[in-house]
Amino acid sequence: MDGAERLRGGPAAAVRNPQLFEEFYRRHVDAVMRFVARRVDDPHTAADLTAEIFLAVLDSAHSYRPGLGSETAWLYGIARNVVSSERRRVAREAERDLRFSGRRLLEADDIVRLEDKLDAESPGRRALAALARLPEGERAVMELIAVDQLTVTEAAAALGIRQVTARVRLHRARKALQEEADPKTAVAPDASLLHVARGEA
Description:
The chain folds into 2 domains: 106 residues, Orthogonal Bundle (Rna Polymerase Sigma Factor, Chain: A), CATH 1.10.1740.10; 81 residues, Orthogonal Bundle (Arc Repressor Mutant, subunit A). The protein is globular, with a radius of gyration of 18 Å. It has 201 residues and is mainly alpha-helical.
């Protein structure tokens, strides 16, 4: 977190002041959009979830603690909850066609811009697919470190766990991914994940 963020009071100050919230939004929207684009492949869903994440900031701003990690790590924690909630909703209501209900209409330029972001993040989605077989706790730590480029400290803060717990989960995930990379395995993980699994990143 930089000094400007600290001086402005972070998320708690931003939600009380529209101008500060706009600055907060502009400072973080690209990172949040990239986070979402690594997890979904539909531009409408990406736009909706990004908006929901910033709405959730309004309710959660009081929970941000600078000593536990950066604003980005804190936002990724909120984003994980929002994306997970959406996945559960879709799973529960799979029989209903809710894919486009309640979505704002996107202009052609918006769709092109979002499709570009989705294309740019497709390697991240492939990497996440390789993580799908890991247990939830290990997968969450590895996602935040290998895919979202957080540090172990930031990942622990985003997940609300101790750093030592995050390190143990990361070790287990790396070991599992190294085993996954065996030539006999039908589907190997993304190369960037292999670097992380070997401790090279």
